[in-house]
Design goal:
The chain is mainly α. The chain has one domain (37-308). α3 packs parallel to α9 (214-269). It is elongated and about 95 Å long. Helices cover 71% and strands 0% of the residues.
């Protein structure tokens, strides 16, 4: 008699999931064949942001040397922002910053939705012919931890409500973890502009200390406002956009997981391949739907999935 695991036992498998859950050493059928390449949109945004700042200063006749000869402004803005993050968040969340930067700058690997539909259609066909236990040989071929453990649950004979509860609890935990990661950057974006004002005040205090040399005073005042510029720039061109990107990447990962949940529950219910295709098609964009329909008409998505193996 097979052992039915509890919700807590299954959740123990998934407590360490992070944004990028693909094993880089493996290259299974259903993963995007992309290597670890840079997020092109992040690079474009960074270049455009810096370029617009420099070009704008040139158009206004502002000396670019002020961007590099004002170390105090960088200390107040960036070290001060780091200080606020350490004050606001527990150390276990702050330690994730390195991984979060990697997520922002390195392209995320997710299972292709069209391939996912084809895979579930194939599994539905096998289940209707041979039963759920026939899928046991497919479990070790699955590289995604969430999908693999979901498949194990339905093969182990757990009831549908239990499987759905466990999978949705995992998704909720993932969303909460991702929210806390994005919050690090959104809070940094909130604090940085205010620290810019603080830097300007410090600079003005230093400038007003000696009013005898007007030329020196004017340069000191200009330097004081560089802290404000850096605070606003880092807050609204770096930290807030990075927080938004993390939220969008999280949404994309959650959509794939919800699609997996729907597919697993449909297989457990014994629905037909056509029915499962129709149910999962709602997760695709119109362009992806059109491409999948075109592939089906030229040979069938299931045939392609089987042939690829």
């Amino acid at each position: 008699m097979q052992h039915i695991l509890s919700i807590k036992e299954y959740q123990m498998f998934w407590k360490t999931h992070h944004y990028m859950e693909v094993d880089d050493e493996k290259d299974k059928l259903l993963y995007s064949r992309t290597r670890c390449i840079m997020q092109i949109s992040t690079i474009i945004g960074l270049i455009l942001g810096l370029g617009s700042l420099i070009f704008g200063m040139l158009l206004k006749g502002a000396p670019l040397i002020n961007l590099v000869n004002n170390p105090a402004a960088y200390v107040i803005i960036f070290v001060g922002t780091a200080a606020t993050i350490f004050m606001a968040f527990p150390i276990n969340e702050v330690k994730r910053l390195g991984k979060l930067f990697k997520v922002v700058f390195v392209q995320q690997k997710l299972m292709d939705k069209k391939d996912l539909v084809g895979m579930f259609m194939e599994w539905a066909s096998i289940t209707r012919r041979e039963g759920l236990l026939a899928l046991e040989s497919k479990v070790e071929e699955i590289d995604h931890p969430f999908l693999r453990n979901g498949m194990r649950m339905i093969i182990d004979g757990n009831d549908q409500e239990f499987v759905q509860d466990v999978l949705m609890e995992d998704i909720n935990a993932t969303e909460e973890r991702h929210r806390s990661g994005a919050l690090l950057f959104s809070q940094a974006g909130m604090y940085a502009p205010t620290l810019g004002v603080l830097g300007a005040v410090v600079g003005l205090i230093a400038a007003m200390a000696d009013l005898t040399d007007l030329e020196k005073l004017s340069h000191a005042i200009a330097g004081a406002f560089m802290a404000t510029l850096l605070g606003i720039f880092s807050g609204y061109v770096l930290w807030h956009p990075m927080a938004t990107k993390l939220k969008r990447l999280s949404k994309a990962e959650v959509e794939v997981k919800l699609m997996m949940v729907e597919g697993l529950l449909s297989i457990q219910s014994g629905v037909s391949t056509i029915a499962i295709s129709q149910k999962l098609a709602v997760f695709l964009t119109p362009t992806e739907n059109a491409k999948m329909n075109s592939e089906e008409s030229s040979g069938g998505a299931v045939g392609e999935a089987v042939a690829s193996e």
